Amino acid sequence: MINIDGNLVKEENANLSVNNRGFAYGDSVFETMRVISGKIMFWEDHYFRLMASMRIMRMEIPSAFSPEFLEKEIGETIEANALETSPARIRFAVYRLQGGYYTPATREIGYVITAEPLDNSFYLFNDTGYEIELFKDHYVNSGLLSTIKSNNRAVNVLGSIYASENDYDNCLLLNEKKSVVEALNGNIFLVKDNTIKTPPIADGALNGIIRKQLLNILKKTEEYTLEETSISPFELQKADELFITNVAVGIQPVSKYRKKSYENKVAKDLLSKLNVKARLG
């Protein structure tokens, strides 16, 4: 069952107009969320990022879009798909209503909520081989638009095709200054000795939910030194560890980049801390 503007309809009957601005212009933002037994993990962070994304896109936020209302809409979608007691992946997409060309006829919005089952309630450590490469055909531009989850994901799509064609598990994206920004599907962290680095939002990195959770965890530990700083591609082969973070997998350790192989001790330690934080809400 799909939730379209608060109406639950069967997937085969869930239709949007070909003039939908999300399709026609990428005039849409979205959130991907992980739900455990009906509870949305890190809901407050998802809600505020969605509101920030809509403001950046100059969308009109309905007065009804309170945290309680949206949580209720998500809950009803979960129930309609019989996922109340199972782990689930939610995609909450907001699009500007159709009309106009580049200049919209209205700033009002519509929304679509979809739900699908996940295999595990909490994050599992994946230590199988995971090889990455740089994607250098196109760049991520630093600035606010790159920090939000919008439907304009052409670089990610082309990078994913490149990775698939060359048998890589993922690729790292660069900004216009040739700094490493993020992976195709999440934020990147680099470990060297006891220092952990991640690119700053100002470089164009996605304002990731798991990124934020890890920053909070790292700021409270004395084991590691955290640096939000630009990362040069030359640093990748000098690192002890690299790992990628997103809501779907939590923490994905990288095993290989070119001729360099990596450890995964820090990634494993942080994943256990992340799962504790998720359980506590």
Summarize, please:
This protein is an alpha+beta fold and 281 residues long. 28% of the residues lie in helices and 30% in strands. The strands form three sheets. It has a six-stranded antiparallel beta sheet. A five-stranded mixed beta sheet has the order 9-8-7-15-16, with helices on one face. A five-stranded mixed beta sheet has the order 12-11-10-13-14, covered by helices on one side.
What does this structure look like?
With 281 residues, the protein is an alpha+beta fold. 28% of the residues lie in helices and 30% in strands. Helix 6 packs across helix 8. The chain contains eight helices and 16 strands. The protein folds into two domains: 2-117, D-amino Acid Aminotransferase, Chain A, domain 1 (2-Layer Sandwich), CATH 3.30.470; 131-280, D-amino Acid Aminotransferase, subunit A, domain 2 (D-amino Acid Aminotransferase, Chain A, domain 2). The strands form three sheets. It has a six-stranded antiparallel sheet. The chain has a five-stranded mixed sheet with strand order 9-8-7-15-16, with helices on one face. A five-stranded mixed sheet has the order 12-11-10-13-14, covered by helices on one side. The model has no long low-confidence stretch (mean pLDDT 95). Strand 3 and strand 4 form a beta hairpin.
